[in-house]
Amino acid sequence: MDFLKAFLVGGAICALVQILMDRTKLMPGRIMVLLVCTGTFLGFLGIYDPFIEWAGAGASIPLLGFGNTLFKGVRECIDEKGALGLFLGGLKASAAGISGALIFGYIGSLFFNPKMKD
User: Fold this and answer.
1) The dihedral of CA 63, 97, 30, 27: what is its sign?
2) pLDDT tens-place string over residues 76-116
3) Cβ atoms of 58 and 2 closer than 8 Å
4) Where are the chain's structural domains?
5) DSSP state, 112?
6) Which residues contact 108 (CB under 8 A, 6 or more apart)?
7) Residue 82: DSSP 8-state
C-alpha cells in the first residue's frame, strides 16, 4: 500500500506541474525554482514533514522534497553554527543527492550518446 500511495502522490505532483507547464508561459527552469521554493516554504510552515510521513517517497523525491531538505539542513546548521549555518546548511543537507545526480548522470552518458536538442 505504501508503494501505491507514493506512486499516486508523486504522480499527482507531477501532473499538477505538467498542467502548470501547459497552461502558463512559465519556462521549465522557473517552474523548478518555484517548486524548490514552495517546498522550502512548506517546510518552514511545518506542513511538509507530516506530508512526507504520510506520502513517503511520493512527497520526498520531487523538487518539493528537495526544497524541504534544504530548509531542514539550513535550520539545523544555523542552530549549530549560527549565521554561518545559513551558507553551509543547504550544501551539507543536499550533498549526497547532488553528488548522486552527477555520478549517475556521468555513468549514463558513458552508456548512451548524449546530444543537444536541435
Assistant:
1) negative
2) 989 988 888 888 888 888 888 788 888 888 898 888 876 76
3) no
4) 2-111
5) S
6) none
7) G
